[in-house]
Amino acid sequence: MFNVDNFQSYSYRRETESLSSVVKLYPLHNYSVRNSDREDPPRLCEYRQSLKLREDFENDGLIRTVQAVLMGHQNSIVHVLLLKNGAGQTEWSKLPTLTLYPGEDEIHGMKRLLMKVMGFQNESAEAICRVYHVVSKWWRPNFDSCIYPYIPSHITKPKEMIKLFAVDLPKYASFTIAKNSLLIAAPLFEIYDNTHEYGPIIASLPHALSRSVLHLQSILFT
């Protein structure tokens, strides 16, 4: 039986060391991207997404999702790497995202995310995940699109927990993403409070990241 109080207490103990963190950021031009043969599934309409959430919750209990906050800098401005899918009015941007298996450790899930979604090799993903920073945590109370950075007081069984992790990317990396995706770098000033374009989670990143020290690294020699 899911117990919110016990779960939050456990999560707090796990996250205490990550509340004030230093995140190393490298220049964006150090990174390259290519597309694989894999194709991301199309975005579900709200009704179908609601049905899927209900089915997953009834089968496995609380849905746990991890999202990767991958960052770099350009002209001394912090950028967040986002995946863009769709076209025209159906176009949307998202953080690299993965739903955990039942009982799967979150950091193992982050490693799997980096391999499956961003195309890292096993050794690289494991090295990246050795240092991580909990950025924020969001809750979905019901089987709809509404999410909150807290559990509403009248909710005893939230349906989904979404946890954001920032990791230190290596100095150089090559990303391999789905063939129907684009990798874009969005500056913090563009996503700040821009819920219309990016949704509440991404739009709140400048607030959430303010508790971390973002250390911009310069590569003087190669």
From TrEMBL:
**Location(s) in or outside the cell:** Nucleus; Cytoplasm
InterPro entries, from UniProt? Cleav_polyA_spec_factor_su5
Record keyword Cytoplasm present: yes
Q: Does the keyword RNA-binding apply?
A: yes
An annotated GO cellular component of this protein is: mRNA cleavage factor complex
Organism superkingdom: Eukaryota
Annotated signal peptide: none
The Gene Ontology terms for molecular function here are:
mRNA binding
Keywords tagged on the record: Cytoplasm, mRNA processing, Nucleus, RNA-binding
Which Gene Ontology biological process is one annotated for this entry?
A: mRNA 3'-end processing
Reported function: Component of the cleavage factor Im (CFIm) complex that functions as an activator of the pre-mRNA 3'-end cleavage and polyadenylation processing required for the maturation of pre-mRNA into functional mRNAs. CFIm contributes to the recruitment of multiprotein complexes on specific sequences on the pre-mRNA 3'-end, so called cleavage and polyadenylation signals (pA signals). Most pre-mRNAs contain multiple pA signals, resulting in alternative cleavage and polyadenylation (APA) producing mRNAs with variable 3'-end formation.
Question: How is the subunit organization of this protein annotated in UniProt?
Answer: Homodimer (via N- and C-terminus); binds RNA as homodimer. Component of the cleavage factor Im (CFIm) complex.
Q: What PANTHER family does the entry give?
A: PRE-MRNA CLEAVAGE FACTOR IM, 25KD SUBUNIT (PTHR13047)
Similarity remark:
Belongs to the Nudix hydrolase family. CPSF5 subfamily.
Query: What's the name of the protein?
Result: Cleavage and polyadenylation specificity factor subunit 5
Please tell me the species this chain comes from.
Answer: Litomosoides sigmodontis (Filarial nematode worm)
